[in-house]
Specification:
CATH class: Alpha Beta
Number of strands: 8
Strand order of the largest sheet: 5-4-1-6-7-8
Order of helices and strands: EHEEHEHEHEHEHEHH
Low-confidence stretches: 159-163
Radius of gyration: 14 Å
Shape: globular
Helix content: 40-55%
Length: 163
């Protein structure tokens, strides 16, 4: 796990529970877990590069990226391998140095490219089949935190004083 220098995350089903609430005028709402928010904060503060790669184009992706100063946000990706390659190239990392967490069949090709493919506990069987790490927690319920806990030294994830 020490060779992982960057983390790419799907949004729906990974950072969220995969559900969308539609408001009466068509607005979409997504729910994020503070466990996963803390995980992204810890990852960024530890020096990991973090990207969001999603097949949708939710405004929450931009809000999330702004909160953490994420430079790499790929929305509306129908081929997530293109985004993952661009992310690796722009950061100067080999694909083997990236972890990617996905939850469904559209994530599998990108998962197969990276050094550490990961999936939440409630991911589709196809995603879990290619994952080297399947978390015990579900998407939007701490799965990203569990992945980050595996990636970072334990004192960064569990101490009261984090960077």
């Amino acid at each position: 796990m020490n060779s992982i220098k960057a983390l790419a995350l799907d949004i729906d089903g990974v950072l969220t529970d995969g559900c969308v609430w539609w408001g009466p005028t068509g607005e979409e709402w997504r729910r994020f877990s503070f466990r996963d928010i803390m995980a992204v904060s810890l990852a960024c503060k530890s020096g990991l590069q973090v990207a969001l790669i999603t097949g949708e184009a939710p405004p929450q992706a931009d809000q999330f990226a702004k909160k953490f100063g994420l430079e790499h946000v790929y929305k509306g990706c129908k081929d997530k391998t293109v985004a993952l390659r661009h992310f690796a190239d722009s950061c100067g990392f080999a694909l083997e140095e990236l972890a990617f967490m996905g939850d469904d069949i559209n994530d599998v090709p990108a998962m197969e490219l990276c050094g550490l493919p990961a999936a939440p506990a409630d991911a589709h069987d196809a995603a879990k089949a290619v994952a080297r790490l399947v978390t015990t927690r579900k998407g939007g319920r701490g799965a990203v935190r569990e992945l980050v806990d595996h990636l970072l030294p334990s004192h960064l994830c569990r101490s009261r004083s984090y960077p």
